[in-house]
Amino acid sequence: MANKRFSLCFLFLLALLPSQISAADESEGREFVLTLDHSNFSQTVSNHNFIVVEFYAPWCGHCMKLAPEYEKAASILSSHDPPIPLAKVDASAENNKELANGFEVQGFPTIKILRNGGTLVQDYKGPREADGIVDYVKKQSGPATIEIKSADDASAFTSENKVVVVGVFPKFSGEEFENFTALAEKLRSEYDFAHTLDAKHLSRGESSVTGPVVRLFKPFDELFVDFQDFHVEALEKFVEESSVPIVTVFNNDPNNHPFVSKFFDNPHIKAMMFINLTADTADSFKSKYHETAEQYRQHGISFLLGDVEASKGAFQYFGLKEDQVPLIVIQDNDGKKFLKTNLEPDHIATWLEAYKDGNIEPYRKSEPIPEVNNEPVKVVVAESLQDIVFNSGKNVLLEFYAPWCGHCKKLAPTLDEVAVSYQSNPDVIIAKLDATANDIPRETFEVQGYPTLYFRSASGKLTQYDGNRTKEDIIDFIEKNRDKPDQQEQVKDEL
Ligand SMILES: *[C@@H]1O[C@H](CO)[C@@H](O)[C@H](O)[C@H]1NC(C)=O
Ligand SMILES: *[C@@H]1O[C@H](CO)[C@@H](O)[C@H](O)[C@H]1NC(C)=O
Ligand SMILES: *[C@@H]1O[C@H](CO)[C@@H](O)[C@H](O)[C@H]1NC(C)=O
Ligand SMILES: *[C@@H]1O[C@H](CO)[C@@H](O)[C@H](O)[C@H]1NC(C)=O
């Protein structure tokens, strides 16, 4: 589940990343990034109070792009006082897989910050270019919360476009202060924390506020909120909840990306409206959407507003087209999707209500049913899956493929041959479905890689084919598993 959410978010952000992969810098001389593997990882990590570790795979494009930046950052941080080490582990190497699994590495690159000889592990959530890495890592290696002593300190600290949490205390001791510091340690990778003795340093601060009080600044909605319960758990909940915008904005502004990640990480139902944010009509959509969001967010729905210019990845993922904009798509926790296209501002609230009342039919991404389908391997799309695979009464071998997948291309001529050899047998269908352009019923088919082959016998027995991808083996399998017409009668009689 977590994995699926990650990949969805990743798809959104992917559209923003520069597509070209810069060639890795073949810098001469010393390498500053430490190379670690299963043989020396624990030993090295236990010697450091603070170390950054990248888990990468040699073939991963984002890793290649990161490499020269990471190396540059390592060289800068090596002259920090004290030096801050950056390391890397090839997580794809067989010997290192157990190590990577121990850190729940699910995608590449995964970067972790290890403290205290490796006893505390935290995700790296910073930028991926050298200067950004240096700033982020420096801050992570320093104190979790910094003192604000002047208005200048405060404006330097809060002017950035992110969530910052400031504790106002009459003195820097006592349980409230300790609890605040403990929370800062825990959440330091996600938020900036500071503490002060004097609330008047803060923008919008009043000298009458003596604390202890926690003031959370955010670049959206009501701009700041105060909180006075210093139980660690209550504080954490307050920070997590107050830092989520009523409507998360997704556009080309990287400052918004942490909020987009948070949007996809939360367990709520996700409503996403895509409009042209630079068009004249945007404001009326925005205000109606905001109203609706305020009304429905108590019902476990989170809201995102996406600019169509930035949403190519999302449109591909959901099978949407630009001429359907403005639109809203909802994805619920079962993976069901609901779609309203060519929206008008006044539709927003009524459509949401209809959705909540269960009056909207789920939306399924599908290519159009092909008008001509007379190649040996039949084309199946989401809209024709029921008819061809489930209701045809035929034995069907179905390939789930992706157009870019090399193994699928390799399999294609073999499948063709298999199909040709069954052409005179009307009881057997060989078919393929482009799984990137059509939604698959996930409760029936488990498709985790391409190609995935399923066989459904005429009587309804579903089996995944994981044999060798040769003509002989596939035909062998079909022959073993298919129902012959007379058998089928028998099965029917038994039912
Ligand atoms: C860890 O071991 C690998 C493989 O033997 C080696 O290439 C690497 O330099 C070692 N790293 C350290 C920090 O000793
Ligand atoms: C600090 O947090 C702990 C753990 O939640 C709690 O038991 C304690 O009461 C808190 N102290 C204050 C002053 O809120
Ligand atoms: C969005 O609107 C602006 C201003 O009307 C227009 O120039 C732009 O082409 C539109 N973008 C799309 C993707 O429709
Ligand atoms: C696939 O082929 C390999 C080598 O050709 C063979 O060892 C293996 O048993 C085959 N697997 C199946 C399921 O037929």
TrEMBL record:
Where in the numbering of this chain does the Thioredoxin domain appear? 11-142, 363-483
EC number(s) from the headed UniProt entry:
5.3.4.1
Q: Name one GO cellular component term.
A: endoplasmic reticulum lumen
**Residues of the signal peptide:** 1-23
Keyword Repressor found: no
User: What Gene Ontology terms for biological process does this UniProt record contain?
Assistant: protein folding; response to endoplasmic reticulum stress
**EC top class, as a word:** isomerase
Domain of life (superkingdom): Eukaryota
Disulfide bond entries? C60-C63, C405-C408
Query: What residue ranges are annotated as transmembrane?
Result: none
UniProt keywords, alphabetically: Disulfide bond, Endoplasmic reticulum, Glycoprotein, Isomerase, Redox-active center, Repeat, Signal
Its principal location?
A: endoplasmic reticulum
**Could you tell me which CDD domains the record lists for this protein?**
PDI_a_family, PDI_a_PDI_a'_C, PDI_b'_family, PDI_b_family
Q: Which InterPro entries match?
A: PDI_thioredoxin-like_dom (IPR005788), Prot_disulphide_isomerase (IPR005792), Thioredoxin-like_sf (IPR036249), Thioredoxin_CS (IPR017937), Thioredoxin_domain (IPR013766)
Intracellular or extracellular location(s): Endoplasmic reticulum lumen
Catalysed reaction, written as an equation: Catalyzes the rearrangement of -S-S- bonds in proteins
Q: Name one GO molecular function term.
A: protein disulfide isomerase activity
* PANTHER family the record matches: PROTEIN DISULFIDE ISOMERASE, PROTEIN DISULFIDE-ISOMERASE A3
NCBIfam families from the UniProt entry: ER_PDI_fam, pdi_dom
Family label: Belongs to the protein disulfide isomerase family.
Its job: Participates in the folding of proteins containing disulfide bonds, may be involved in glycosylation, prolyl hydroxylation and triglyceride transfer.
**What is the protein's name according to its record?**
Protein disulfide-isomerase
Organism lineage reads as: Eukaryota, Viridiplantae, Streptophyta, Embryophyta, Tracheophyta
